[in-house]
Amino acid sequence: MLKQPFYDPKRHWVHYLTRPFTLFGASTWQAWYNSKRMRNLFKAVMQDVLFIEENPSVARSYRVKEQLRKFQDNLKNLILTRRPYIKNSLKKGFLLNEKAARILQRGPAAFKNLPAAMDFLIDVALYATVLPHQVFTIINDHEINAKGLCYLAEKLRMISYYPSLTNKIVLPLAKDRLKSLGVHDVGESLDLITLHELIDGKAEALHERRLNRNKKLRFMYQDLNGKESVSWVSEKNVIAIIAKLENLSLDTKGRIQLHGQSAFLGKVKGIARIVLTPTGEGVNLKIGEILISIQSSPTLMPLLRECSAIVTDEGGIACHAAIISRELRKPCVIGTRVATSVLKDGDLIEVDANKGVVKILKRAQ
Fold first, then answer.
1. Distance between CA atoms of residues 124 and 152, nearest Å
2. 3-state per-residue secondary structure call for 271-328
3. Strand, helix or coil at 8?
4. Across 199-213, 292-306, 314-328, 335-349, which has the greatest mean pLDDT?
5. pLDDT at 158
6. pLDDT tens digits for 159-187?
7. 81 in Cβ contact with 90 (< 8 Å)
8. What is the maximal distance between C-alpha atoms in the chain?
9. Cα 155 to chain centroid, rounded
10. Same domain, yes or no: 230 and 268
């Protein structure tokens, strides 16, 4: 039984996506969505967010239903009434990607400080990642006749620079900022501080957060229009909170059959390999094994080429996994919601993408 909600229960939270996020990563990602650039591009912002660390350094994010609906409605209206604006914005995404490639060659020295690097990261993320994804999704969901925009959006989504910009530019500058505050263990500490705290020079909470991390507690991060709060809860409470927010019965975590949406048809049996990092680093996936991930991205292409099938927690017709599975002609089931939680590394599973079903045949020893 939860003694306190740890989040604002008055808001209608809906699951938005799950990503490999530390506390710093979660707060950095939210900086995209509650920015002036977001409002200028989409004519709307999503100023409230809730993150719950489901697995170590993997967090589920939630949006306020009404804010998400308004954002999507605004973009749909822009597609219908201002198509040249959307087309030019997508073209700007290509130009920003070209600039990102040049900046990555220069490294952190390309920016005078962390806020300047974040400004550029937000531009790249919004124009070259968020915009094409949302445009492609809305056009297909509402069956809008806009083949030109679909082509641009799908092509733009095939290359993603924001992970590299984060790892090679933002994180080194963030570590330098921590050092300037007198923090010595910058590697661990960076995972336990928010972007706003770091920029504002507020590192007082780090000691207590290290203790909470050592107790194997999970973080909950809430940002209500710039007002941040961080809570630490047990794994048991995390499961209870997620179940309450998403109206799931707790026994779904132990079920042996998963259902999702078929992205490319086919039926395959094989060993499950769980991938929770953006690049798949450290994952030993052998040819013919089945890739299980939260979602896929261009950085996972080496593993995607080797696997025999793809299963993801998230996704729709516009997701990277769906696009790549059709290109590589590999069976794919997307949108299972909890595959990375239910399936274990080494399980023998059957992926029946003809029916959108994933079965566990034998548990890993």
1. 16
2. EEEEECCCCCCCCCCCCCCEEEECCCCHHHHHHHHHCCEEEECCCCCCCHHHHHHHHH
3. coil
4. 199-213
5. 86
6. 889 999 999 999 999 999 999 999 989 98
7. no
8. 57
9. 20
10. no
Distance between CA atoms of residues 41 and 230, nearest Å: 29
Any domain includes 1: no
In a domain, residue 243? The reply is: no
| pLDDT above 80 (res 153) | yes
Same domain for 137 and 200? yes
How far apart, in Å, are the Cα atoms of 10 and each of 6, 64, 245, 247? 12, 10, 12, 16
pLDDT at 254 (0 to 100): 45
pTM of the model: 0.77
Helix, strand, or coil (residue 264) = strand
* DSSP letter, residue 107: G
254-266 per-position pLDDT tens digit: 445 788 999 999 9
Q: Are residues 123 and 172 in the same domain?
A: yes
324 with 207, same domain? no
| pLDDT-based confidence at residue 4 (cuts at 50, 70, 90) | low
- 212: three-class secondary structure by DSSP: helix
Number of domains making up the chain: 2
What is the span of the domain harbouring residue 287? 253-362
Q: Which of 6-10, 111-115, 217-221, 285-289 has the lowest mean pLDDT?
A: 6-10
> Using alpha carbons only, what angle is made at residue 78 by residues 16 and 19, rounded to the nearest 5 degrees?
20
Beta-strand relationship, 290-293 and 267-275: parallel
